[in-house]
Amino acid sequence: MAIEFKLDVVMADRKVKLKDLAEQVGITLANLSNLKCGKAKAIRISTLESICNHLECQPGDILKFDPSVKPVIEHQFSATSIDLPVDFLD
């Protein structure tokens, strides 16, 4: 993924524990852990805002974009030769 989470670095710099930040932000420990470890596929803007508020940082401190990484297409569907009955849409 071209977007990297750097939450672990920001938390370490500020000496903030995962459990404490999860409680302050109102997010489960598991979800925050996924963000910290870079396993998350998405983050709500409201969650990002709350994290930035509690860590007193900017979104760019937590997120990094690497344009050299090619995007991964997770779901690709190709249906070039599907024969449907004539009354399919009736």
Q: State the share of residues found in helices, binned by percent.
A: 40-55%
The arrangement of helices and strands along the chain is EHHHHHE
> How many helices does DSSP assign?
5
CATH class: Mainly Alpha
- Count of distinct structural domains: 1
Uncertain spans: none
Q: Order of strands side by side in the largest beta sheet?
A: 1-2
CATH fold node name? 434 Repressor (Amino-terminal Domain)
Shape: elongated
Termini Cα gap: 42 Å
What is the H level of CATH, i.e. the homologous superfamily? lambda repressor-like DNA-binding domains
Structural class: mainly alpha
Instruction: Give a short account of the largest sheet.
Output: 2 strands, antiparallel
Polypeptide structure, described:
- There is one protein chain.
- The chain has about 90 residues and is mainly alpha-helical.
- The chain has a single domain, classed as Orthogonal Bundle (434 Repressor (Amino-terminal Domain)).
- Helices cover about 45% and strands about 5% of the residues.
- The protein has five helices and two strands; from the N terminus they run E-H-H-H-H-H-E.
- Strands 1-2 form a two-stranded antiparallel sheet.
- Helix 2 (about 20-25) packs across helix 3.
Set out the fold topology.
Elements: E1 3-5, H1 7-14, H2 18-25, H3 29-37, H4 45-55, H5 59-62, E2 63-65
Antiparallel strand pairs: 1-2
Helix pairs in contact: 2-3
